[in-house]
Amino acid sequence: MNWQAITFDWNQVRAFLATAEEGSFSGAARVLGLTQPTLGRQVAALEEDLGVMLFQRIGRNLELTPSGLELLDHVRVMGDAAHRVSLAASGHSQAIDGVVRVTATNIYAVYFLPPVIERLHEIAPNLEIDIVASNELRDLRRREADIAIRHVRPQEPELVGRLVNESDGSLYASKRYLSKYGRPRSPADLEGHYFIGSNNQQEMVNYLGRLGITPARENFRFGSDCALVMWEMARQGFGMCLMAAAVATRTPGMEPVFPDMAPMKFPTWLVAHRELYTSRRIRLVYDTLAEFLSNQSETS
């Protein structure tokens, strides 16, 4: 390794990473236990050492520059590695115990979380994982859960969030359904077709609108507040259903209704209370989930 080529200070890198994830110098200073001027100097020193600008002011907002975005992926890997080193050095990586409650939609709970739980059990066998499978947003501030997997960015100042993935989603139907009702040629050709709806029909209409699809009220004849039930209805040929591509490709007999249409993007946010920074067991689960979910687009 060329040690002389490494000219930056880890504290500066940590300041940059915290600022990028918190979205502001004040937020980063708070979670790192520094004053804002000290944190600002560390970020400025890193910019000087690297010879690039990492952040820029857009009105009142602090945004990453293209150089900052390019650096962020590498720095996150460093941050995860540093955390694992800290665990190993303390000699407690196998001694973490207690309950960590994770909330996610029932689709995520069934299709994505089991291998993460298996991995966590290998790392910390005394850890207890409680999965709260629900499409409702649980209140992390009231400790209804410790960690949440959401499709919306957290707005509460007590919470921290990381965008870990943006997965593809499309409209799918079973071969049985398409054989019975025919495949529509375009989104304008949906008369006589059926959609599987949720308990929030307007939200479904909004999602479909992002694909250029505007169904009428009479297109919704079946529905459920449970995404797993919705998906099973679609699998059995009741109608068409929105679903993440990673789930659809694991389900035999399901096909994209409009295979040539560009997919929509579903952002995936990993959210936790700020206790994340003081609880070893919550941080371990959070980091393991972040690593796994970030790789979903590569493994699905």
From TrEMBL:
Keywords associated with the record: DNA-binding, Transcription, Transcription regulation
Pfam families according to UniProt: HTH_1 (PF00126), LysR_substrate (PF03466)
Domain named HTH lysR-type: residues: 8-65
InterPro entries per the UniProt record, alphabetical: LysR-type_TF_proteobact-type, LysR_HTH_N, LysR_subst-bd, WH-like_DNA-bd_sf, WH_DNA-bd_sf
UniProt-listed GO biological process terms: DNA-templated transcription
Gene Ontology molecular function terms on file: DNA-binding transcription factor activity; sequence-specific DNA binding
Family listed: Belongs to the LysR transcriptional regulatory family.
Protein name per its UniProtKB record: Transcriptional regulator, LysR family
